[in-house]
Amino acid sequence: MVKRIMDIILSLVGLMLFLPLLIPVIILVWLQDFHSPFYVGQRVGQNYKMFGMVKLRSMVLNAEKTGVQSTSIDDKRITSVGRFIRAYKLDEVMQLWNVFKGDMSLVGPRPNVEKDVALYTVEEKKLLSVKPGVTDLSSIVFSDEGEILKGSQNPDLSYNQIIRPWKSRLGLFYIVHRSCIVDFKLLIITIIAIFSKQTALGFIKNMLDSFKADAELIKVCERKNSLYPFPPPGSLNIVYDL
């Protein structure tokens, strides 16, 4: 109940604070092709309930029809205004509306499309036991997902090999240790990450250390070394085919 009250209050405050910035950006997106500046993507929420996640549209119209779910920074579907939107994470701000409605929470595992959820292991399906969130540990650690996937011939495969294994583990870690205090800390760290990702990663390392997280997970979250293919939680095999 406390979490839901915090979600309602902070999402409403956030929407009002961002409104002066969102209005001109919304107009710029509309002026590009005179189509809706919003993108509503179907995502799998808590207990497998589908919902429409709202984003500021950063790609060309009907970009999802290409079948590619993961997006690299050099993806040709991203528009000129969209690059600005993605650089400052403005596309995610509209998800505060989903939080206000109750589809999402401010903090929780990031929601995925049905196609990606179908690949979940039994262990990963535990991610659907809580409401998905606007931010979480993985949102900060892999905030440069587009850069990580840059140049990949198969962004979806690369995502499943080097990002999904750790993203899912961080989501499962959050579920085990979640609390209002942890949520508050993650919201603060998310704001810090806007100005200094390295500082934010330091706070995440401290949090993981305090809960005695797996040493390999902590090492990955420091982001000092290149990511490498690894099995998703609950599996012994690296994903080689989708």
Set down the secondary structure blueprint.
Layout: H1 2-33, E1 38-44, E2 50-56, H2 80-87, H3 90-93, H4 95-101, E3 105-107, H5 114-117, E4 133-135, H6 137-141, H7 145-148, H8 155-177, H9 180-195, H10 197-210, H11 215-222
Parallel strand pairs: 3-4
Antiparallel strand pairs: 1-2
Helix pairs in contact: 1-4, 9-10, 10-11
How many strands appear in the DSSP assignment? 4
Q: End-to-end span in angstroms?
A: 39 Å
The coarse silhouette is globular
Number of domains: 1
- Fraction of residues in β-strands: 5-15%
Helix count?
Answer: 11
Radius of gyration: 17 Å
- Give the ordered list of helices and strands: HEEHHHEHEHHHHHH
Question: What is the averaged pLDDT score?
Answer: 92
Q: Strand order within the widest sheet?
A: 1-2
Q: Share of helix among residues?
A: 40-55%
Question: From the helix content, strand content and strand pairing, which structural class follows?
Answer: mainly alpha
- Major β-sheet, in short? 2 strands, antiparallel
- Report the uncertain regions: none
